[in-house]
Every structure is written in C-alpha cells, then in structure tokens.
Amino acid sequence: MASMMGPRKLQLAASLLPRAAMRSSPSASIPLLRLSGRLSGCPSSQCWRGTAYYSSGPATSSLSHAAPKARANIEVNGKTYATDLMYNVPPNVLASTSRKLHLQKDHPVYITRQIIESKFPAPTYKYHNTFDPVVSVHENFDSLGFPPDHPGRSRSDTYYINKDTLLRTHTSAHQAQLFRASESDGFLISADVYRRDEVDRSHYPVFHQMEGARVWDREKVPNGDIVAAIYEDLARLPTHDVKVEDDSPAFDAERNPLQDGHHSAAEAEAVAKHLKRSLELMVVEIFTRAKAAAARQDPDFVDEPLRVRWVEAYFPFTSPSWEMEVYYQGDWLEVLGSGVVKQELLINAGVPSQVGWAFGIGLERIAMLLFQIPDIRLFWSQDKRFISQFVGVSDDLDQMKRFVPFSKYPACCRDVAFWLPSTSSSAAGGGTKASSHDFHENDVMEVIREITGDTVEDVKLVDSFTHPGTGRKSMCYRINYRSLVKTLTNRETNKLHAEVLQAMVERLGVEIR
Ligand code: FA5
Ligand code: MG
User: Do residues 192 and 101 make contact, with C-beta atoms less than 8 angstroms apart?
Assistant: First the structure.
C-alpha cells in the first residue's frame, strides 16, 4: 500500500517486532504437491520481508482480475451503498467493518487509544471515535490535496465501494470536516482504516489510526499574536528528560518548505515546537508504561534509555512535515507522521484565520511495542488465550502486562510459481511500469487472504524473471502457512494451497508453472 505520503521508501515490519518473533521455526518437511510445481522449506532468513515500497508511478484505473464479484448493494454499519465496477472489497474485509477494536474495552487497541488520549486532555481536545469508515473520494484524497495521479488512489491500493466512495485509508479523511465544525481547539480521532496491502506479521488490510490536531485562531488570540499564544501554551505543557535527536532545521525551502504567504518563520517554528513536545510527551508515556509492565513481570529487566528522533517527511496536507522514529531493538521505527496543517485546507474549511498542526499514528504499531504482541493477526483473535490477558486493564492501566505468547504452531511453506498473462507487466514486487492490464502484487495478497483467512503468516516474492525468448514474466511467491490456533496438517495445507492456486488462475489469469 502506498503510504499517505510521497514516494519514499517505507520503513516497516522488520524493525517493528521483538527479535524473537522474527525468527521462524524451520518448517516441517513438506511432501510433494503436484499443483505448485515448486516446493521448499522455509529458511528463517527468507521468511521475513522487512521492507515494502510502492510504485511512484501514476494511479491506474484499470479493473483488476482480482475484483470480487460485483454486488448491487452492500451494507456497512447499517447503511446501504450501491456498488459499481470500482467495487473491490472482499467479504472478509467488509465483515471487519463491524469489529471496531478501538471501541472494545480491554482490547489492546482500545488501551493504546486510552493512553494516547490521556496525553491530549479534554476540553482542549475533543475525542471522535465513531466516524463511519465509508467516506467519499473527496474526503479521503481531494480535500487533502492529493494529486490526481497519487498511487494511493489506485484500486490496487484502496478499497472502493463505488467510483465516489471508499473505505477510508487514513483518519486524515476526517480532518476537513472537523476543521469546518471548529468545535474545539484540538481533536483526536480514532478509527479503523483499510488498505490493500501485503501479507506479513505487521500488515493487515484493516488497522487503526489515531489522528490529532491543534489550532490557534489569529482572530481570537490576544493582540492577534499567534506566536506568543503558542509559546504560552507550550510553557504550560510538562517537560520530559528523554534525549530527542532533531538535526533538521525548522523548515527547508526545498525539502520541507514553510508555507510562504501564510506563515511567518516564527509562526511555523512555534507550531512545530508545540507539535513536537506534545508528541514526545505521548511517546514517553507509552514507553514508560511499556517498561513498567516489563519490570513488573521480569525482575531482571534492564531499562535501556528511550531514543527518539524527528526526521523530515512529506505529506500533501502538511508543510513542513516530520515523522517521529523510536529506536527499538536495534532499529529506528517510524511511529507517526505529522506537520503544520496546509493553510488551503483551513481556508477551504471556512476557518482561514486558524493555524495549527496535525499528526497520524498507527495504533497496532504502538500496541505491538507496548504489549510485545508478535503478530498483527492476533488483534483480530477472539481466542480467550489472547483476550483474557488484557481484562481489567482499561479500568486500571497500572495492571498492564506484556502479552505472553501462547504456543506457536509449526509453519508450512508452499511456493506458487506462475507466468503472468502475456499482456501484463507487474507493479510493485517486480517494480516495473504498470500497464493497462495491471498485475499488482496486492492482488496476489488479496486472493491468498480471501481463500486462507488468517492462516497465512506471510507471503513474499522469492523469484521473478523474464523469459529472454518469449518476453513472458514469471514470478514465484512463498506462502508461509501458520495457524494461530492449531497445527495445520500437511493435508489441510495442501488443500488450502490448491484452492489458492485455482483462485489465482481464475481471478488473476496467471498460468501455474
Ligand atoms: C498517514 O496515514 C497520514 N495520514 C499521517 C498524517 C496525519 C500526516 C496528519 C500528517 C498529518 P502513513 O501512511 O505514513 O501516513 O501512516 C501513518 C502511521 O500509520 C505510520 O507512521 C504507522 O504508524 C501507521 N501505519 C501506516 N501503515 C501501516 C500498516 N500497514 N500497518 C500498521 N501501521 C501502519
Ligand atoms: Mg509513513
């Protein structure tokens, strides 16, 4: 999935998880399976895909082979929507719209939201936790200044209900409406968001984000002095003693520009300082709680100092922009995107005299760190062994404990090698230019998710080449089958894999090798 920013490499999965979780156990021996053409064990070094990227090419409007069968009407949260040829929401994703993990008391996503909310107190910040996941293309993209050819708009990245309506890909989709309503100086939104994406332990087609924003009004602050008003508010925020690395200048004319004609340098700098301190206080709270939980469970726990840094970023709806990264088990992990709100957004929302900041953070990503949860599929588990570990925490955050993994079941790897339809080229994975009959890696991921539910831990491209004579492209993906709830027999794995192969032939038009 395209991140909601510009064409930059994403820093993902590998840095996210406890080291132990990144080691897969060697797979059981695998009998020969006729259909797959290729078999292999699953050496641990190959079973983890640490990075993902998306093509920075134009969005494609082609209708992929992977489109679920069109249905005239669908229902989401009690409302009916008419579908059209853009419809591409598979049943399992549609069903997730009713789960709302961020509203389930004692769920780790709920607890993470609670901790973040505690650092952005009412009434300055008003909380919005029940916005509908179905939004317009305008809300999700246009209102935020996404260019028409931004890859995030494509059907290979985004779940469309119809040409004008989609499942929100980020909580920023609600920024404009809240700026327009102007009910409070600040707001927090938590919500489920949807992205067509790869399959691995840190990606799921549904995850949760929290959006925050804070504005000041030139017409309401004393003497119209925004800078003085912001510094006064900054002085009221607590301080912290975590060392934060922040080498970049407040703005940079080329890389991270000030909004000329809208903000003075002093204003942008004041907004940035308030934004950064507010978010640092939040992350300090999260990690202080995570360490306290670890120390309660493990008397030998060694407390390492928290390291946080700010790096320049790009989003169509903020400038200058930054990401916060946290040093975690040997790697820098991106936890949030943020910046000074684009003035066009505030002008279009009818509040031109306001100036402010906004941020967006991934709740699962934080919850995985907070509770040491090794696999994102677990958040969706209704298994008592998962849910029971968090009971009572919402009412008393000091009871928080790290997740104790229940037994891990063996993995079974199967490869699927295939020729692409001769008219296709590939986008993502292969990284070549998209054609009108686009093959996209996300289509493979989605077929696998639809057929196997949550029994696949990850899928990765292990080989691709173009035949020198025919020019046809071959790809090979390794599917790592591992149930969260039981040991899969070879027979069960083979049956699932055969169904995956059949669906790929039927839906993607590939030819199995
Ligand atoms: C956004 O979604 C922007 N809307 C954030 C923003 C809001 C910027 C307001 C400026 C102002 P991005 O795609 O990078 O940006 O996602 C933001 C955060 O969501 C990431 O830092 C990460 O914590 C989380 N996130 C993104 N993709 C995933 C994923 N596939 N799985 C888990 N968490 C994710
Ligand atoms: Mg990002």
Answer: yes
